[in-house]
Amino acid sequence: MLNKITVVGAGNVGATIAQRMADKGYADIVLMDIVPGLPQGKALDMLEAGAITGSDALILGTNDYADTAGSDIVVITAGLPRKPGMSRDDLLYKNMEIITSVTEQVVKFSPHCILIVVTNPLDAMAQRCFEVSKFPKHRVIGMAGILDTARFRTFIARELNVSVHSVAAYVLGGHGDNMVPMVAYTNVAGQPITSRMTKKKIEQIVNRTREGGEEIVGLLQTGSAFYAPSAAATQMIEAILFDRREILPCSIYLEGEYGISGIFAGVPTALGSKGIEEVIQIDLAKHELSALQRSAQSVQNLVEKMRIAAAIE
Fold first, then answer.
1. CATH 3.90.110.10 domain residues, the chain
2. Is the pTM for the entire model greater than 0.85?
């Protein structure tokens, strides 16, 4: 019997996650969306592709949360995408409403699932999902650092004309303007990045990484990134399904690690069958630790805004 994975939100990110998983064939997929016909049409199209890709995975499109019952993993992508000139934080209140409703329904039908949150502003939405679901912290995970790290590694690899496989890096902190690319831990085939690039070039790449999502939004005009985010979510799903204990930068609820408590922030995390298996604490330089804590404070500010809004309601 295959695992059951639900993707909530049949837009570009959600549908691409579903397609990536369906093509691999090791889990049955439910694509859930409130728009009539949208998830059904996309799911049927993916199902028919299985005869070509060699996948026997079942794919169901639905507008009914009852069809998601018993899911092992639920990926939440539902929400409004960014538009040109809009920051991730601008999405806060509307997506807070969406995440609250989605989480309530998901938990009702899949009380034992692991939740992966993709909706922006990512860390704040993961926090909202955690508080609404009342799940233990190891079963609510935000997808952020993997995407940011992928962008950082890509820009470095292209600048040095080497394979991305040769670039080791981490981007920690919140998924926003205050994210923290860990330059001191970045290397190319074991060589520190500082020995391969000038300080000015490294700063340019760090800034481009922080603005990576905005750059794509500006180019597309009518949408936001979805290929790389869907690949990042798929990597998380595989780490959990196959109990890999793969160490990936994920947004998780911290309770004192890195001097941060009571908030979601991106840190190295071992993902396995239980969700978060271990929080990896690496020694950071003082300025890097301070930057990570400032990033977490930015998330805290958003969470406080949500709590005030929820109290008013």
1. 145-307
2. yes
Give start-end residues of each CATH 3.40.50.720 domain in the chain: 3-142
> What is the pairing mode between strands 114-117 and 140-142?
parallel
Residue 58 burial (CB count, 10 A): 15
Radius of gyration over alpha carbons of the chain, in Å?
Answer: 19
How far apart, in whole angstroms, are the C-alpha atoms of residue 5 and residue 7?
7
CA 71, chain centre distance (Å): 19
Do residues 78 and 101 lie in contact, with contact meaning Cβ atoms separated by under 8 Å? no
Task: For residue range 218-262, list pLDDT tens digits in order.
Answer: 999 888 899 999 999 999 999 999 999 999 999 999 999 999 999
Who contacts 66 (Cβ-Cβ below 8 Å, separation ≥6)? 109
- Tell me the pLDDT of the chain averaged across its residues: 94
Smallest CA-to-CA distance from 18 within 35, 53, 42, 1 is with: 42
CATH says 145-307 is which class? alpha beta
User: How far lies 190's CA from each of 25, 160, 187, 193, in Å?
Assistant: 36, 14, 5, 9
Could you give the residue numbers annotated as active site?
175
Q: How many Å apart are CA 39 and CA 44, to the nearest integer?
A: 8
CATH architecture of 3-142: 3-Layer(aba) Sandwich (3.40)
Across residues 37-50, what is the average pLDDT? 98
Residue 277 has pLDDT above 80, yes or no: yes
